[in-house]
From TrEMBL, chain A:
Origin superkingdom: Bacteria
Cell compartment(s), UniProt: Periplasm
Homology family: Belongs to the bacterial solute-binding protein 5 family.
Primary location class: periplasm
Key words, A-Z: Signal
Protein name: ABC transporter substrate-binding protein
Taxonomic classification: Bacteria, Pseudomonadati, Pseudomonadota, Alphaproteobacteria, Rhodobacterales
Record domain Solute-binding protein family: where: 69-449
Organism: Paracoccus simplex
Coiled-coil blocks: none
Automatic annotation (TrEMBL), chain B:
Name of the protein: ABC transporter permease subunit
PROSITE patterns, A to Z: ABC_TM1 (PS50928)
ABC transmembrane type-1 domain residues: 96-321
Residues making up the signal peptide according to the UniProt record: none
Principal subcellular localization: membrane
Superkingdom of origin: Bacteria
Pfam families found in the cross-reference section: BPD_transp_1 (PF00528), BPD_transp_1_N (PF19300)
Keywords: Cell membrane, Membrane, Transmembrane, Transmembrane helix, Transport
Topology class, membrane: Multi-pass membrane protein
Length: 534, 335
């Protein structure tokens, strides 16, 4: 998009706004960063999904607010074939796409839009595959949708049939993720005719609760309520994202009434927020885990009893207190307690330095010196990895294990920590994408993920464990899946490829007069249900 | 004079080529890889990695990449951002006015306060005013911008509620960007109160950004004044019985300002550096914040071309300063 057309867009958006002055109910969200663009498909950042996927678009199915349960969205209903290979979606009728000054839809949402949404990402020769030079579809490939989907057929205008290569229970949850937000084929055709394909990424047209109005780079995004929304219409008239990268400044803005709600407060500010009579603090367990992954292919960490002993040497309660300042709970399983199939019967390793020392001696470990890797960045699941590594260092010293703390630049850290034969243990974590246990267990602990390009940083390949996951993935019987995952967690605990550290809490500070905000366990920020009381 | 300008402009060419090398090398010397950062915790398979690297041309030897970049530059193509996929030049032009506006207000503020403070400190050398202002300048010069900005926000926006916390204008106002300068655009919009809002949003960030140049200008003015006041012609003027006001204002100040103007010109680079932190604190959508974001994302094209554009602007400003220096200083006439 040229510099001038950005201005034209802003100018025309202004004309649109001039006709409709700012309404009484303008809701301002102090977002933490700038979106990478407004087409949700090519990007991976939550910041981008909040600004595009959740505000402007819908998916075939969606997560029920505040949960990871699947509910109908643009698909009213669906059937899964007996063998789990065919999914038939019946599309909602009468759903309107937004319009802007350059485009007014002539038809309602239909099957063509669904097929367009998926095919542009799936087919390298599709005219919209690389509609902007250098654009790639990271989520589509990392969720292995390309390997999974065999074909997509239009049965009629309101029915779409997906055929898979193998049965895959998490498929529905994948289809609820922002990267497959349904875009308008008619809009794409219009842009192609006008020769402004890149506007799919600059001026999004969706079916979602809010219409995109204008974006001033790195400063402000403006939306208007979609009056034709197929679901329950938003209660606010205008939605504004005020981009505010610094957490302390976000809080000052909230306190000054310059915005109504903010994400990611600094842990150090929580006490002040709680004490402020004009603010509310919403909290919810996040769908995440912070862990320390041993390299199970390198001696002496190839012995489960050594890993177990080190886990017992760790005072996790003190660690969580110091690192998360109380805004987390100690983790015993690799999946968080809010996730279905969480095995609560499992007992965590007791903190017992004496017993740990003895176990290490019995395993023949003497004068061990090991590396502990500390991430250089903050993540919701790990606010201060350096501090965590120091706590582990002092705990391990008590059982005679010397720890050297290592850190690299973030990109290097991710790369080197996945290099075979890596020494020592790595602090890292994960935040769920779609609420399915498979999205934790397979991604982080399966044999397939223990290869280059995977994310199994323990290099732990346990055939029994991986078989359970494969079986659960192919089953469409929910109860059976629960059993299989519970069993897998038992094996995980016995083998101890990780020290599970913590599940952190998500905090959302907001003004007192904000009502109806529903926190998402997946860390999404959505505003169709918020309201402002006087 | 014309020859002098042409010669200076010719010198710019090798300098610019040097800068392309430095900027191109700097971002690649930093550990980190844009492709890995894009993938994050989820990882990327070796095949996929190779595919993306090939697409971006990062699989070729570095020298080839450099010459490819240089070739594109000569055709006026500064490349596209890896993240937003937009042309670097368009992004630069969209964000640049915000930085210029903040920088101009800051430098004007620093000059209007710094010069009088320096002059008074020189005249009243050794007085309490001299001591306090020079100590203040030292503190201001070593002020950590991040902390200073946050402190002002907490005090003036938080406790007192006098100024807005961050941004360029209240979200109530919405009008098309005509010039990119919020002060001008808000006047053009004709919306009531828009200009006042834009002005109030400028107060804190411009104070923060002006702090270091103000300290430098005040100290420089003081020492230039002291030097001039010891010169023969000033003593002569005093001996002739001219009023102190005339001595200081006409004879001393005019000559003392020559090095001070150079100093003010050289603050442009300092301002650019300060803008990075100031813009980040005040959510000011300008070049500094854009550079910081792009460096942390290892957005190679943005960093290398952005640095090149910034360097070009700083050098052109310095050239203009050089020329004015020749105009105001009769002792240096460019042959």
């Amino acid at each position: 998009m040229s510099f001038f057309s950005t201005r034209m867009l802003a100018a025309s958006a202004f004309a649109l706004m001039a006709a409709a002055p700012l309404h009484a109910k303008t809701f301002v969200y102090c977002s933490e960063g700038s979106p990478e663009g407004f087409d949700p498909a090519p990007y991976t950042a939550g910041t981008t999904f909040d600004a595009s996927g959740h505000a402007v678009y819908n998916r075939l199915v969606q997560f029920k607010p505040g949960t990871t349960e699947i509910e109908p969205a643009l698909a009213e209903s669906w059937e899964v074939s007996e063998d789990g290979l065919t999914y038939t979606f019946h599309l909602r009728q009468g759903v309107k796409f937004h319009s802007n000054d350059k485009f007014t839809p002539s038809r309602d949402f239909n099957a063509d839009d669904v097929i367009f949404t998926f095919e542009r990402q799936a087919k390298a020769d599709h005219p919209w595959h690389e509609y902007i030079p250098g654009i790639t579809y990271e989520y589509y490939s990392s969720m292995e949708m390309d390997k999974l989907i065999k074909s997509i057929e239009k049965v009629d205008d309101h029915t779409v049939k997906f055929t898979l290569n193998q049965p895959e229970a998490p498929f529905l949850a994948n289809v609820a993720m922002p990267f497959v937000s349904i875009v308008s084929k008619e809009y794409a055709d219009a842009l192609e005719t006008a020769g402004t394909k890149e506007d799919l990424n600059n001026a999004p047209i969706g079916t979602g609760p809010f219409k995109f109005v204008a974006y001033q780079k790195d400063a402000v995004i403006r939306y208007q309520k979609n009056a034709d929304y197929w679901g329950e219409a938003p209660k606010i008239d205008d939605l504004v994202f005020a981009i505010t990268p610094d957490a302390s400044v976000r809080l000052q803005k909230l306190k000054a009434g310059e915005c109504h709600l903010m994400p990611y407060p600094a842990p150090a500010d929580l006490a002040e927020i709680k004490a402020d009579p004009n603010l509310k603090l919403d909290e919810q367990a996040g769908l995440n885990v912070g862990y320390l992954a041993y390299n199970t292919t390198v001696a002496p960490f190839d012995k489960p009893e050594v890993r177990k002993a080190l886990n017992m040497a760790m005072d996790k309660k003190a660690l969580v207190e110091a690192v998360y300042q109380g805004s987390a709970e100690v983790a015993k399983n690799p999946i968080p307690p809010t996730m279905w199939s969480y095995n609560n019967a499992i007992e965590d390793d007791k903190y017992d330095p004496e017993a740990a020392k003895k176990m290490l001696e019995d395993a023949g470990v003497k004068d061990l010196t090991m590396e502990v890797w500390a991430m250089p960045v903050q993540r919701p699941y790990m606010p201060n990895a350096r501090r965590a590594a120091e706590m582990i260092q002092s705990d391990f010293a008590k059982v005679g294990v010397k720890v050297e703390i290592i850190s690299y630049e973030w990109g290097e850290y991710l790369k080197k920590s996945m290099e075979e034969g890596r020494k020592g243990a790595v602090i890292l974590g994960w935040t769920g994408d779609n609420g399915d246990p498979d999205n934790f267990l397979s991604v982080l602990l399966s044999c397939a993920a223990a290869t280059p390009g995977g994310a199994n940083r323990a290099f732990w390949c346990n055939q029994g464990f991986s078989d359970l996951l494969a079986k659960a993935k192919a089953s469409s019987d929910h109860d059976e899946r629960v059993k299989l995952y519970e069993e897998a967690q038992v094996i995980f605990k016995q083998e101890a490829p990780w020290a599970t550290l913590a599940h952190s809490t998500q905090y959302v500070p907001m003004a007192k007069n904000v009502t109806g905000f529903v926190q998402s366990p997946l860390g999404d920020y959505t505003f169709e249900s918020v309201d402002l009381t006087e | 004079m014309l020859r002098f300008i042409l010669k200076k402009l010719l010198y710019l060419v090798p300098t610019m080529i040097g800068i392309t090398l430095v900027a191109f090398g700097f971002i690649r010397l930093l550990p980190g890889d844009p492709v890995l950062l894009m993938a994050g915790e989820r990882g990327v398979s070796p095949e996929r990695y190779a595919q993306i690297a090939a697409q971006l041309g990062y699989d070729k030897p570095v020298w080839q990449q450099y010459f490819h970049y240089l070739g594109n530059l000569l055709q006026g193509d500064l490349g596209n951002s890896l993240v937003t996929k937009k042309p670097v030049l368009a992004e630069f032009l969209a964000l640049f006015p915000a930085t210029v506006e903040l920088g101009l207000v800051a430098i004007v503020l620093a000059t209007l306060i710094g010069v009088p403070v320096g002059v008074i400190a020189a005249i009243k050398r050794g007085s309490w005013f001299d001591q306090i202002s020079m100590t203040g300048a030292l503190i201001g010069f070593s002020m950590p911008i991040f902390w200073w900005g946050l402190l002002l926000i907490i005090l003036f926006s938080g406790v007192l509620g006098w100024t807005p916390v961050s941004g360029r204008i209240s979200l109530m106002y919405f009008f098309p960007s005509v010039t990119g300068f919020m002060l001008i655009d808000s006047l053009l919009s004709g919306q009531e109160g828009a200009f006042a809002s834009a002005l109030s949003h400028l107060i804190l960030p411009s104070i923060v950004l002006a702090t270091i140049p103000l300290a430098v200008i005040a100290r420089q003015t003081r020492s230039a004044m002291l030097e001039v006041m010891g010169e023969d012609y000033v003593r002569t003027a005093k001996a002739k019985g001219l009023s102190p006001r005339r001595v200081i204002g006409v004879h001393a100040l005019r000559n003392a300002m020559i090095p001070v103007i150079t100093t003010i010109g050289l603050q442009i680079g300092v301002l650019m550096a300060g803008a990075i932190l100031t813009e980040t604190i005040f959510s000011w959508p300008g070049i500094g914040k854009w550079m910081i974001d792009s460096i942390s994302r290892r957005d190679y094209p943005v960093v290398q071309s952005g640095l090149l554009l910034i360097a070009a602007i700083v050098m052109i400003v310095n050239l203009i300063v050089d020329l004015t220096y020749g105009l105001i200083n009769p002792r240096i006439r460019h042959k």
